[in-house]
Each structure stands twice: as C-alpha cells, then as structure tokens.
Design a protein that fits this description.
The protein is α/β, with parallel strands linked by helices. The chain is built from 33 helices and 26 strands. Helix 3 runs antiparallel to helix 5, helix 24 runs antiparallel to helix 28 and helix 28 crosses helix 29. The protein is globular and about 90 Å long.
C-alpha cells in the first residue's frame, strides 16, 4: 500500500472507540447516529452523509440522520426498496458507487430533501449480526469517482456503526415501540404457533386478518402507524403486545432446554434438513400436502426442543395451485404469483456480509439461485430461488411451481435443492454434522457432500463416500412407485456430468449409485436408491411402513434376509401447538398443568385428561364444531358465488349442516389409492344413513388432485356431484382449495376423521393425529400410524388389517366393513345420551384417544427419536454404542 493510500485509510477509519465515545456523548441512539454521520462526512470529505433505516415492513427505508440534506426530512422521507439508489443498495445488499447519478437507471430525485445539487453517490448496507438494518450514503456536489479503497473503508465504517443503527431502530423515535414489537413478532414464524400472538394480530383488524390469509406482514403493512396506535389504545393492546414480545424473546434466548442437554454435539455442526416442501403456515405457499406439513412440523419441534437444525428447501414463486371446481365438479387449477415483500423472508447473508448466491454447472449451462432466510423460532429455513438475473428464461421459472413440469424440470429443481442447498450452507460458513434427507428429492446433496469432502480432505471418492454416509439420515415416505423419482441416463449426464468428473467417476459408476441392479445399463437412476445407498441410517415413517420398505428394497442388500434390511422406522408425529385449537389448549392448561406443552412427548403428562369434567370437554368440542360449520358455510357460499350460482342456492348453503348431527371429515390428497369414494360404494345405504331423522350423518370433504392425475380428479368429481343430488345436497360439502387453514378447521372441529387408504399404501398419515389432539375420533383402515395406535377403545377400525391380492375384492371388503362400523359402532355410540344430554361413552373414548395417543404421535417425540437415534450418533456424539452389527 502506498503512503498516500495508508494516510487516506487512517483518515477514513472510524474506530469502535470513537463510536463508543459518540454514543456516550449523544446519549440516545438518534443523537449518536447524527454525530456519526457528521464524523463520516468529515472523514470522507463529502458534502452529504445520511443514514437510512429499514422500516419494520422491510420494504421501505426512512431517513434517520443526515448531514447535508434538509433536517426536516428526518423521519418523513421514505422510499421503497425498489426506488432510488439507496433502495438499490438495500435490495442487493451490496455497495453501489455512481459518479453521475442522473445517468443511472435507478436514479430518483427526492425534491423535498434538497439533493438536486449532488452528482455522486456511494452507498453501503448496514448489517448487524447478519441482518440488514439500513443504508449508509455519501454524496458530493462534484462528479466524484469513489475508489475501491474508499468503498471498502465506508463498508468497514458501516460495520462499526451498524449496532448503533440496530439500537436506533429498536429503541428510538423512528419506529413506535408497539409497531416495532409487532413487526418483531411478525418476522419470526414463532407467532404462528403461539395463540396469544395470533389473537393479537387478529384483534388488530379481524376482517383484514381473514382476507389477508392470516399474514401479519401484510396486515401490518396495510395499517398506518397512527391507526395502529389508535387501535392498540382502543383495545388496550399495549400490555398484550409487550407480553407477547417478551415471551418471544425469552423463548429465543432460553439456554436450558432438552436440546442443550441431549444434543450439544450438534451446536457447532447442526443438522441440515433437506425437503422439497415446507408447510409452515397458509400464508407461505411452498407446500402441497402431507410431506411439506410434516417438514414444517419437524422444524417447529426442533425449534421448541432447541435442536440445532437448519431447513433447506426451494422458494416456489407461484407455490402449489389454487383449486376451483367448475359447475360439473371438475377441478381447475390457477397459479398466482406470490409477493415476496409480503413474506417474512430476507436475503441470507454469507460469511463476508454479502447476499448468498449459488451456481451449479451443467452440460447445458449454469443454474443460479439466490437464497432467502426464514426465521422459524430458534431455527432457520433457507429457500433457494432461481428467479435471478443471469439464468436462462426457463431457469428463472424453475422454482416457480411446486411439483410442476416434466422430468427435466424436476431434475433441475432437485439439483438446485440438493447441490445448491449444500453450497448455500458452505457460503454461510455452516458445516453440518448431519444431513437429513426428507425423501429422495434432495439426494444430489449427497454427491455434493462427497465432492466437498474429497476436496477438503484430499480423499478419493471411495474413501470419502463412507465418511459422508455415516453422517446421513435418509427418510423414505412412500411405497407408491410414483413417489420415487427416476431419471434416464441422458438427463443424469446433462445435469451431473460436471460434478461426476470432479469426483473422478465414470458415467456408469455414477448411474450405479441410483440403480437397484447396478449391472443393468437400461435401468433409470432412482433418487430413493441413491439415498439408501449413501446413508448409514435409513428409516420409514411407521412400523408397518418399515416392514413394507424392507420388502420393497431388499434387492439393494443381496444376501440379507428381509428382516435384516437396514431400514428402521420412526413414526411421524404432529406439532402440538400448531394443530391444537386455542380452546383445547386452555382446557389442557387447566387440567394438565401450566407448561404441559413443553413436555408433550411424556406419557404421564396426558394422564390428567381423565380428570376433566365430561361436560367441559364436550362443550369445548361443540364450540369447535360450530366454528368449523361457520367456516364451511362461509366457504361454500363463496365457492357458489364464484361459479355464478343463483341467490336461492347461496341462501341454502348459508344454512348448511346441523351442529347436532354426527359430522365426519375427510381431507387429504385425492390420489386414487386413498379411496375418497369408498363411502360411495352403496349409494342407497349412504342415503338412508345421512337422512335418518333420528340419527343423521353429514360429511365434509376437502383435498386436491395432482394437476395431471385425471383418475384422482374423477374421484373428486364424484364427491362434488353429490352436493347437487337432492338426497345428499345438505349432507355433503366439498370445501375447495385445501390448505393448512382448511385443514386446521377440519381437524379441530369434526366428530370423526375418516381415513380409508388401500392398505399398505399409506406410509404414515398425520391428519388423524391432529384430530386426536382436539378430541376427535379416528375411523380408519389399519394402515400407517393407525395400525400401531388403535387399541380397540381409542377410535374405530375399518377391517382387521388383512388385504387381498385382488384389488376389487379388497375394496369391496373394506367398503362393506366401513358401512358396518358406521352402522353398528360409530353412529349408535355418538347418539347414546344420558339425562344430561351427554354421550358419556363417546366422551370416554375421546379421553382415551387423547391419553393414549397424544404423547406418542406428536412431533416432539418424533424429533427426540431422530435426535437420540440418528442425529447424535451420526454426529459422533454418543458416549457408548456396542451395537456394531451392520
């Protein structure tokens, strides 16, 4: 460095000691910030130095301090991130230097600031603890070309100033404390499973809350500060806001947790949990169904237990489709673009303070992606987004839709998820100790992990593979063939050829990793086979599914009997706070003890349900049932109005269903093996059942068929058409556009949950587990989780668990047994009342299902099982292990 440059560096440096001194002199953060910008302007010899703070909506900047612009603009001059050069700095999270601003396409003149005289611009992002806080800007009258040294020095000054800016944002007058705390709640999805926080947002504006799909970011963005303060004052919300905020901070900062005791080895090297979809909340549409909701529940429970875990997925700009039924009951799909500014996401920041991007080379060019970060309680979720400059048009659309496109689209999505996801972790200086693959979609992450290990440790492929494999947990989810992605050799070579060469593998050697029979050159590459081959620990998701999976994949392990195939099982569970109705949560608080939900995986916690008064439990259930019926009527009317139905029809739909009638719910993906139409096997029996004036039955249905699954659509159409038949019109309702919100209402309000897949094709199923928590009873085929849960008194079973090689015989038997159980067991028990009008036998069964199943089939127990049996051993954290077989 030249003497001149060194002198300039010394003049420009803003030290931590100086910042501390300015803070002491100024007292308040706002005054400190004014002193800082004045000092920076002096050091850099510029006419203007300004600090813009990111507002709580993270979509706008506000001028917070300035030397050179008009002082009256402080706190009033606002710009969107899409506006001006300062907005460009915040949008791209990198420095921007321009010598003549009028020539730049993003130049915007703010006349009220008096900046018309200034020609040059230098802006750098203000980042504190990895989070963007605002922008620091220099301007000069003359057209000045800022040197690289000056850009670097301003960036260093910004790094020293950022904590002051962060404090100013949190504590000072630019943002009202109530608004700031509401935004802090909204930016972390912890609120979505905290009933106090959810009710707080709802009470701010109940109508808008519903219309905005329960999205607090959208809600707060639409409420001006003045109106928010008035509303908070009118409803006396300030105490509730402070209470919710304090509880959130206590939750995030707690250091005494189950994870701290049992999973300390994961703290420096966390679990990387890969999944093609995450169902966290209805306002974040990056999920389609059960697999995604399971992943969402997994990361939430990992947060509650304080397991160091990072989720990796894809950001789907159009999500899964919106569903509408036409007048004939045929499913129509609509895709809507999601507004990123309305989601609690921010750019992931790399080790050097830059936004994380990844690039993957293929034979047909590079695929690039940016990375978003979502806070899920204590955990982070990283979502890769291919809609970036530099990508070909087809690749910009690559992550637009979930489960859309042909095989080429799917392999490119999975390449981005696996390889891109692993590289994103590395760009953020995160070294995972465990790779957990939730199904085979992310299997290519294993190849990138091997390549990385080869490079870092100087190993060849065959030595690196077992080192990676012992850190891998692979979960397989379905025995249905369509659930296992397969790609032909040409697609594999096009997309993995460059990676294959870096690993020193031939094309055939790579293909053999994904073939059940490595010697068969015609066999396609199966992602599940890759996951099973390159993992030390593989599991199915229920006991029965474990048996099915061992039989299904026994060919991968020649010489081993079926029982010795190394695929275990960890049965799925559901996240209790997410799916438990607030009314039931309060009932449990009263009878299971405060803080019961923090130990919901312990069996003894649930014993207290037997002490609940029958009347109290029944009245709580009826209130939830009424809420479901109100929701169902509202949706039915909206659906009919959208189809142009006459007013008379709308009035009838508004009065649908009786709260006194037995209400049976069915909501899931409309795949043919799930047999949604099994109840239609005998229409005359069904008509007699639903129209019995003494013991009526009513059915609510919801679910989506895959856009290319016409057989599934025809099953759905059969259900929808019943609504037009006079003898079923007021007994059957199909609620369109099944999502987490619809599912929540269903599982919290039904009397009975119907589940009748063709055994053994249901790997686990989790919707019935959500019903258990809310006191509903399951009526299910003995498949998936119910096969290990049913004890004869905690619900109802269809069949005995036997199957038949002839599918028609199998279906006919189950259909007959479904009607028998309804007629002989379910309906009589529900309508058997005592002199108080209470169905004592039914309530006894409700209590038993809660007591025997609530602790077993929840996500805390599931994640604890994964941690103790998979994560900690994979990370080398066990203190003893003498099971050396296999």
């Amino acid at each position: 460095m030249t003497q001149h440059a060194a002198m300039r560096d010394a003049n420009h440096v803003l030290t931590l000691e100086e910042i501390t001194k300015l803070a002491e002199e100024g007292g308040k953060p706002a005054e400190t910030l004014m002193n800082v910008v004045a000092l920076i302007a002096q050091r850099f010899r510029t006419d203007v130095c300004s600090a813009y703070l990111l507002e709580p909506d993270r979509a706008n900047l506000v001028l917070a301090a300035t030397l050179g612009l008009r002082p009256q603009c402080i706190g009033t001059l606002r710009m969107a991130l899409q506006e001006g050069l300062a907005g460009l700095v915040a949008e791209q999270v990198r420095p921007v230097a321009v010598d003549r601003v009028q020539n730049h396409p993003r130049f915007k003149y703010f006349s009220e600031a008096g900046e018309d005289a200034y020609q040059s611009f230098l802006g750098v992002p203000l980042i504190d603890r990895g989070v963007l806080q605002g922008v620091l800007v220099l301007q000069t009258v003359e057209a000045r070309i800022f040197q690289e040294e000056e850009v670097r020095m301003l960036a260093e000054a910004a790094a020293q100033v950022a904590p002051v800016v962060s404090e100013a944002r949190a504590l000072d007058r630019f943002i009202a404390p109530a608004q700031e705390r509401l935004w802090a709640l909204a930016r972390n999805l912890w609120w979505s499973w905290d009933h106090d926080s959810t009710s707080l947002f709802r009470d701010l504006d109940p109508v808008n809350w519903r219309q905005l799909n329960h999205n607090p970011v959208s809600l707060l963005g639409e409420i001006p500060l003045g109106r928010l303060e008035r509303r908070a004052g009118e409803l006396v919300l300030h105490g509730r806001i402070n209470y919710a905020y304090r509880r959130q901070q206590e939750y995030l900062q707690a250091d005494r947790s189950w994870g701290a005791t049992h999973a300390g080895v994961l703290r420096p090297r966390p679990v990387a949990y890969f999944s093609a979809e995450f169902g966290l909340h209805e306002s974040i549409p990056v999920y389609s169904g059960g697999l995604g909701v399971l992943a969402g529940d997994h990361i939430k429970s990992a947060s509650d237990l304080d397991i160091p875990l990072i989720g990796i997925g894809l950001f789907y700009g159009q999500g899964y489709f919106r569903q509408r039924l036409d007048r004939n009951g045929w499913q129509e799909e609509e895709y809507l673009q999601t507004d990123i500014n309305q989601l609690p996401m921010e750019p992931a920041i790399g080790r050097h303070g830059e936004p994380v991007t990844v690039q993957i080379e293929t034979r047909s060019g590079a695929i690039r992606a940016k990375v978003w970060r979502v806070k899920v309680g204590r955990c982070d979720l990283l979502l890769l987004d291919s809609n970036v400059e530099g990508n070909a048009p087809e690749d910009r659309e690559l992550t637009s839709r979930l489960y859309g496109g042909d095989g080429r689209v799917r392999i490119r999505q999975e390449l981005l998820l696996g390889v891109g996801g692993f590289r994103a972790l590395k760009a953020m200086a995160i070294t995972p100790g465990v790779l957990h693959l939730n199904e085979g979609h992310s299997g290519f992450a294993l190849l990138e992990a091997i390549r990385s290990r080869m490079q870092d440790e100087g190993l060849d492929f065959h030595r690196a593979l077992p080192r990676v494999a012992r850190e891998v947990v692979f979960t397989t989810h379905t025995p249905v063939a369509a659930g296992h992605d397969r790609f032909h050799a040409g697609l594999i070579e096009e997309h993995l050829g460059p990676l294959r060469e870096q690993m020193g593998l031939s094309h055939d050697a790579l293909m053999s990793l994904g073939r059940e029979n490595p010697g068969n050159p015609h066999e396609e590459f199966c992602m599940t086979v890759l996951g099973l081959r390159v993992s030390r620990r593989s599991n199915a998701v229920s006991a029965l599914h474990g048996e099915v999976s061992r039989a299904m994949w026994t060919g991968l392990y020649p010489g081993r009997p079926e029982d010795a195939v190394p695929i275990g099982h960890i049965t799925n569970g559901v996240h209790v706070p997410t799916w438990l109705a607030p009314q039931m949560f309060r009932l449990y608080d009263r009878h299971l003890g405060t803080g019961w939900h923090e130990h919901s995986g312990d069996a003894h916690i649930w014993e207290g349900i037997e002490n609940v008064d029958d009347g109290e439990l029944w009245e709580t259930h009826l209130s939830l049932k009424s809420r479901l019926l109100e929701f169902m009527r509202r949706r039915a009317v909206a659906q009919a109005r959208h189809r142009g139905e006459p007013g008379e029809t709308l009035q009838k739909l508004g009065r649908l269903f009786s709260p006194d009638a037995l209400t049976i719910g069915f909501a899931r993906r409309f795949a043919t093996y799930k047999r949604a139409n099994l109840i239609l096997a005998d229409i005359e029996k069904l008509a007699a059942m639903v129209n019995d004036p003494k013991r009526p039955v009513q059915f609510v249905f919801a679910g989506k068929a895959h856009p290319r699954d016409d057989p599934g659509k025809r099953v759905l159409q059969q259900i929808a058409e019943l609504m037009r038949e006079p003898k079923f019109a007021d007994k059957f309702v199909f609620v369109e556009d099944y999502d987490i919100n619809v599912g929540r209402h269903f599982v919290q309000g039904v009397d009975v949950w119907l589940n009748n897949p063709r055994r053994p094709l249901e790997a686990s199923g989790t919707s019935g587990q959500k019903v258990v928590l809310n006191g509903g009873l399951n009526l299910s085929v003995l498949d998936g989780w119910w096969a290990e849960a049913f004890d004869g008194l905690n619900g109802f079973a269809i069949g005995t668990g036997r199957t038949h090689s002839n599918m028609d015989v199998h279906d006919r038997r189950d259909g007959d047994d479904l009607y028998r159980v309804l007629r002989e067991e379910v309906i009589p028990l529900y309508y058997q009342r005592d002199r108080d009008g209470l169905p004592r036998g039914w309530i006894k069964r409700m209590k038993r299902t809660i007591r025997t199943l609530g602790w077993r089939f929840n996500a805390d127990r599931m994640v604890m099982d994964y941690t103790l049996k998979c994560y900690v051993p994979a990370a080398g954290g066990t203190s003893s292990d003498m099971n050396l077989a296999g």
